[in-house]
Write a structure and sequence with these properties.
By secondary structure, the protein is mostly helical. The chain has 18 helices and 5 strands. It has 3 domains: 87 residues, no CATH class; 84 residues; 176 residues, Intergrase catalytic core (hpI Integrase, Chain A).
Length: 416
């Protein structure tokens, strides 16, 4: 039989449009309907049918169930794809009500575009100022952030991920040396303050330092002067630089910070030493006990007027720390103590005071520190014998120790 080329090939029945997340296929002698999670919002459903018609009938029933839902979606301007996502989301949060989930997210979502590092630091410093941080501490924070983000000030605070934070933590210091564990720990602490504030401000969702452990710090060996060395310093100061005696005695027997000492007037030195909040590192006023040795040495000093500063040496030098260390270099050389250890007199007081009082809280208060700092630096730093000898260093006792040992002939003349 000849083929009739004019005859049309029978058309395959057109498949109805299937709901989103529903598929239909033939598997050998049966038809398989797969209803996915985008439709159910939960588990996947598979149904098997002996005929194509029965499979389509089942799909039609599914469409009827969602018809009202789709009409509502149109009213809300939501697509069928969005409706499928909503089903999945509702299934995932079940049994928690949708309102609670939305409220939880709204509380934590970024509220606005993240500012630049420069602006974020400025806002942080303003916040710390309202919390009572002192001007010196705020300046110190600003200088640290300037160094950490050198050349990156205009970048968004939200652009710093874990890898970039690790680069900052391992960057060389100002002298071109690799940072020590202590420096890395300090960098991490200050960066954590900044990025925790960014999270609180909802500029970023999470702190990039989360999961970055602080490096283990190895406590450095503090140089603690012996009572004999302290006696030599006091005696030498009395002989060649008497105007330095009050500030040296206050440093040795009260542990006061340099920046605090240089701003204390004689009017704040009475039965105690008052450190005003304006120049305290912590931004809080504190009162330091005048110990018996300190009282004895202050009685030898000529007190100035109430508004006159206790440390008044080299008034022509605006840089007061530099003026103080210049004088102390001369005194230390004459007393046979070279080189001068960093923070020597503050560590001296912390060590001997804790050994004397055995009270970390009291020592930390007197020094304007935290008990944890006192524990990590001053526990068991001196012997009981040296502690007892140190607190005996009143003027008469020091004279009995040192007067028999005259100053060397080449001792430099004091400038005061």
């Amino acid at each position: 039989m000849a083929l009739d080329w004019g005859m049309k090939r029978p058309q395959k029945p057109k498949e109805p449009k299937l709901p989103h997340g529903v598929s239909l296929r033939k598997d050998r002698n049966r038809w398989v309907v797969r209803v996915g999670k985008k439709f159910t919002g939960r588990e996947i459903i598979r149904k098997f049918f002996s005929s194509h018609e029965k499979a389509l009938s089942y799909i039609a029933e599914l469409k009827k169930k969602t018809a009202g839902e789709l009409e509502k979606a149109k009213e809300l301007g939501v697509s069928t794809l969005d409706m499928a996502e909503i089903r999945v989301a509702l299934a995932r949060i079940s049994p928690t009500p949708l309102r609670e989930v939305v409220d939880f997210w709204l509380e934590r979502r970024p509220s606005s575009k993240a500012p630049s590092v420069e602006d974020a630091v400025e806002k942080l410093l303003d916040l710390k100022k309202t919390e009572g941080c002192g001007a010196r501490h705020l300046k110190d924070m600003a200088e640290k952030y300037d160094f950490y983000f050198d050349g990156m000030e205009k970048e968004s605070i939200g652009d710093f991920d874990r890898d970039r934070i690790l680069q900052i933590l391992s960057a060389k210091d100002g002298r071109g040396n690799n940072p020590s564990p202590s420096q890395r720990a300090k960098r991490r602490r200050y960066l954590n303050i900044l990025f925790n504030d960014a999270v609180a401000q909802r500029w970023i969702k999470e702190n990039p330092l989360d999961g970055i452990k602080a490096p283990r710090k190895v406590a450095s060996q503090k140089v603690i002067f012996t009572p004999e060395q302290v006696a030599s310093l006091l005696w030498t100061t009395q002989q060649i630089a008497p105007k330095m005696l009050a500030s040296l005695a206050m440093k040795a027997f009260s542990g006061i910070r340099n920046e605090e000492l240089f701003k204390i007037p004689w009017g704040d030195v009475g039965s105690t030493i008052i450190v005003q909040a304006g120049f305290s590192k912590t931004g809080r006023r504190r009162s330091i006990t005048i110990t018996p040795p300190l009282k004895g040495w202050l009685l030898l000093c000529k007190k100035g007027k109430k508004d006159e500063l206790v440390f008044s040496a080299r008034p022509e030098r605006a840089n007061r720390p530099a003026a103080w260390y210049a004088e102390m270099k001369t005194i230390a050389h004459a007393a046979g103590i070279t080189p001068w250890p960093q923070n020597a007199l503050r560590h001296l007081y912390g060590s001997y005071h804790l050994a004397w009082k055995k009270d970390e809280g009291l020592t930390s208060y007197e020094m304007g520190n935290s008990p944890s700092v006192v524990r990590s630096n001053y526990v068991d730093a001196v012997t009981e014998e040296d502690c007892a000898e140190f607190w005996r260093l009143l003027p008469a006792y020091v004279e009995s120790l040192c007067d028999k040992d005259p100053l060397p002939d080449d001792a430099p003349e004091g400038t005061l």
